[in-house]
Inverse folding.
């Protein structure tokens, strides 16, 4: 028996696609900001000659925070795979909404969404 086609208005699909792109860009910016903060803490600690015991809790906090953000990003990648599966089962299966930056090579199975990574293209010297 053929699966029923889901009916989604294109304008609604575009709203979800845009919100997805904005959300993933925000998560990536949060990762960048967190790394900048960690770097600033290390630089200021060194310039201030702080003992290692003074900045250790700060570095650990940055690392834990970064780990949480990356974990949330992993969940968003799985969510995106689920959304793509729904799109393929809908009347919008042939509609290109554009991929969030960096996710063009993503696989469609949420279970393996984080297992396949696009390999960077070789750079000619």
């Amino acid at each position: 028996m053929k699966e029923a086609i889901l009916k989604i208005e294109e304008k609604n699909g575009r709203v979800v696609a845009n919100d997805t792109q904005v959300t993933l860009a925000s998560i990536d910016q949060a990762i960048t900001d967190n790394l900048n903060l960690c770097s600033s803490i290390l630089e200021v600690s060194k310039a201030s000659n702080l003992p290692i015991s003074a900045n250790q809790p700060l570095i650990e906090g940055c690392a834990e925070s970064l780990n949480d953000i990356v974990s949330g990003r992993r969940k968003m990648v799985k969510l995106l795979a689920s959304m793509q599966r729904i799109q393929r089962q809908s009347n919008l299966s042939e509609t290109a909404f554009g991929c969030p930056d960096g996710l063009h090579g993503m696989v469609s199975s949420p279970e393996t969404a984080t297992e396949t990574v696009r390999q960077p293209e070789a750079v000619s010297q």
Notes: The longest helix spans residues 10-47. The two ends are 55 Å apart (CA to CA). Residues 105-125 have pLDDT under 50 and may be disordered. The CA atoms of residues 12 and 18 lie 10 Å apart.
